[in-house]
UniProtKB/TrEMBL annotation:
This is Gluconate 2-dehydrogenase alpha chain. Transmembrane segments: none annotated. It holds the Pfam family GMC_oxred_N. Keywords: FAD, Flavoprotein, Oxidoreductase. InterPro entries: FAD/NAD-bd_sf, GMC_OxRdtase_N, GMC_OxRtase_C. Residues 436-553 form the Glucose-methanol-choline oxidoreductase C-terminal domain. It is an enzyme of class 1 (oxidoreductase). The keyword Oxidoreductase applies. It comes from the Bacteria.
Length: 571
């Protein structure tokens, strides 16, 4: 029998960026908060002098143990889903701070078009521009409404950058200047200028200089060591929840973190949540934590799975298009890229930072005419210098033998003679792309695994080819002697890493007919439950999601305080 603990004001499920922000804001407002994190505790000291690519980059030290819990995948409903037994397409983080500890730090704002994509597309091109089966929708909130929360997140994290000439308006400048511009990045800027494009320095959560944020948290500048993605930052220069918001919540004395606590159900009665049930993974004991308000802030898949297992909200039915939990799963089209090989020029590719780069948005959103194109939206194009670590980076031109003396000699020759320009494309939602519970496979507790049904569409294939061709033109203009780029996008491959930017399943909207949460991330079906994260995205933009997740967390925290005072659904 489960043990029941004393009631708290708020219980948070998952203590990453969203959970950490909400914990800090609510405890500063005087609420008592319990944060449940199924992974282990983390601190900056854990990463002192630990530049271990094998341990973190290849053996996934910071990721979920797939032998205990994974997802199942199928490309269509006609095929059988099978479990993902080793990491490939995306990485699911684990532990205090979540993906906010092992991210790269690229912190883009979505474009104004992204929040009103359906209405703006129809307004400009007509209803027929949206193909049958595509289920994109407006968020219910505009860029202007979410902008103040973007500003808060950027000041919290000390984002280093410069104004995007094709982005939405800003209420204030970036908190810190852009990062250093390397010779390769300067070549990109000059080439983009000759092609009449609009380059700008990538917005970075790797600090360009020492910074103290509005909460009084001081952090040191980035050392350009090249160990960001899949790694914790030993300097604290890369913003993460462990060095920003969690200390603020802890300082109030009103926040209790319980690690190794795997939440398995949201308990509810009569349209209200009463708390959560979790398992202490160190003892196997089941524990009930009663709470006035439940906030779900774990990873996309975990948010959706927890709601489905808790029978909270109407599950999505792909045959009818009704229901909301699991609806509008989307990924990221991160295949449109080009790599240039230079015979007589070398670059220091091994130094860098996760968000060191230059971007252009000339082919993102609706910043270019789509009238004669067989897709909508687009993606950001960028040259990044995150640090080419030795095990995972071994570029050779196409046509090179995959082993033997030719492969070895060209690997050595081109190790510092390559420049990559990549595109991160948007991912539109479709009626037949969704998340649900698998009927065959279960986790170690006997609970069903989450199942993904997804494949690339003609929209994705056309978009990927378009962006890859644009990348190749830029690399050619930079002076590369040989350029390889994507010619065709094949089926979605869950075993090839592309992006960890999974979205949807608990989407945001203006009415309960086609969304699970309102614009404060409050569930329509249980007004004391707030679900925050990229699971809210009705479709995915051509950017990294973290800035938008952070902004939504600040808005949700504001909504929770309002709800605590007045109750009911927020407007």
């Amino acid at each position: 029998m489960a043990k029941t603990l004393p009631k708290t004001d708020v219980v948070i499920v998952g203590v990453g960026w969203a959970g950490g922000i909400i914990a800090a804001e609510l405890t500063k407002s005087g609420l008592n908060v319990v944060g449940l994190e199924r992974g282990k505790e983390r601190k900056t000291e854990d990463y002192f002098m630990v530049h271990d690519e094998l341990r973190y980059g290849l053996r996934y030290e910071m990721m979920q143990d797939l032998s205990k819990e994974t997802i199942t995948f199928r490309s269509t409903e006609k095929t059988r889903a099978l479990p993902m037994r080793q990491y490939g397409s995306f990485l699911i983080g684990d532990g205090l701070g979540g993906a906010g500890v092992h991210w790269n730090g690229q912190t883009y704002r979505f474009l104004p078009y992204d929040f009103e994509i359906r209405s703006k597309t129809i307004e400009k091109y007509g209803k027929n521009k949206i193909p049958a089966g595509m289920t994109i929708q407006d968020w219910g909130i505009t860029y202007d409404e979410i902008e103040p929360y973007y500003d808060k997140f950027e000041k919290l994290t000390g984002i280093s950058g410069e104004v995007n000439p094709l982005g939405g308006k800003r209420s204030s400048p970036f908190p810190t200047p852009p990062m250093k511009k390397t010779p390769a990045m300067q070549m990109f800027v000059e080439a983009a200028g000759r092609l009449k494009l609009n380059p700008y320095m990538m917005p970075s959560a790797n600090l360009s200089e020492n910074y103290t944020n509005p909460d009084g948290i001081a952090r040191a500048a980035c050392q350009y060591c090249g160990y960001c993605e899949r790694f914790g930052c030993e300097y604290g220069a890369k913003a993460d929840p462990v060095v920003t918001v969690i200390p603020v919540a802890n300082k109030t004395g009103k926040f209790e973190i319980r690690t190794h606590s795997n939440v398995r159900r949201i308990l509810h009665k009569g349209g209200k949540a009463t708390g959560v049930m979790y398992t202490d993974v160190t003892t196997g004991e089941e524990i009930i934590q009663p709470a006035d308000i439940v906030v779900v802030t774990s990873y996309v898949f975990n948010n959706v799975r927890l709601l489905l297992m808790s029978e909270l909200g109407k599950p999505y039915d792909s045959s009818t298009g009704t229901g909301v939990i699991g609806r509008n799963y989307a990924y990221q089209v991160a295949k449109g890229s080009a790599i240039g090989f230079f015979e007589n020029q070398q670059f220091n590719n091994f130094a860098g930072a996760g968000a060191l780069g230059v971007s252009i948005d000339d082919y993102n959103g609706d910043n270019f005419d789509h009238s004669d194109l067989n897709f909508i939206h687009g993606g950001v194009i960028a040259i990044g210098q995150p640090g080419s670590r030795p095990i995972q980076n071994n570029p050779v031109p196409s046509g090179t033998a995959s082993w033997g003396s030719e492969f070895k000699s060209k690997s050595v020759h081109y190790s510092n003679r390559t420049i990559g320009v990549g595109a991160q494309g948007s991912s539109m939602s479709f009626k037949h792309h969704f998340l649900d519970l698998d009927s065959a496979y279960k986790d170690v507790y006997g609970d069903p695994l989450l199942r993904i049904t997804f494949d690339f569409e003609d929209q994705d294939r056309e978009l990927a080819k378009f962006l890859a061709e644009r990348c190749s033109k830029i690399v050619t203009e930079m002076g590369a002697d040989k350029v390889d780029y994507l010619k065709e996008l094949g089926p979605y491959d869950i075993m090839t890493y592309q992006s960890t930017h999974n979205t949807g399943g608990v989407i945001m909207g203006s009415n309960p007919g086609n969304s699970a949460v309102n614009t404060y991330s409050q569930m329509w079906d249980a007004d004391n439950v707030f679900v925050v994260g990229a699971s809210s995205f009705p479709q995915n933009a051509g950017y990294n999601p973290t800035n938008t997740v952070g902004a939504l967390a600040y808005r949700a925290a504001e909504g929770i305080v309002k709800y605590r005072e007045k109750g009911g659904l927020l407007v």
